[in-house]
Amino acid sequence: MGLEIEKLTFEEALAMLEKIVKELEDEKITLDESIEKFELGVKLSSHCIEKLNQAEKKIEELTRSENGKLITKELKIDEN
Question: Which of 14, 36, 37, 71 has its CA 20 to 30 A from that of 61?
Answer without folding.
Answer: 14
